[in-house]
Each structure stands twice: as structure tokens, then as C-alpha cells.
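Example 5.3 — Transcriptional regulator
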Amino acid sequence: MFFEFRNRNRTVKELRKDKCYTVKELAEKVNLNPSIINKVDSLKLRDVPEPVKSKILPFLK
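Solution (predicted C-alpha cells):
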């Protein structure tokens, strides 16, 4: 919860790059299609739809 509060204004791309994940690597880890990751890449964390957010959040912490 504290992680989300602190980073909710950062984009998914920024958080993904901090962990050195490519779109393809993150998609494989969360078992999602890379096109879904590309769609939410430019969104701020608070704007990501809940089903996707709950899957990617543990890997971006």
C-alpha cells in the first residue's frame, strides 16, 4: 500500500525501467500479452485498470 501511495503518479514505463524489465519480459512474468503492457505503459499507476494493476504491481515493487 505504501508503495502504491508513493508511486501512483509515476508511469508504468518508469517503474518498469527502474526494475530493468522490457515489455516482453514483464509480460512473460505476469502471463499477459505484451500488447496489454504496451497499452498501459504510458498510463500513470493510478490510472491502470484494476485487473492489470493487481498482476503487475508485485513485479514493480
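Remark. The chain has five helices and no strands.
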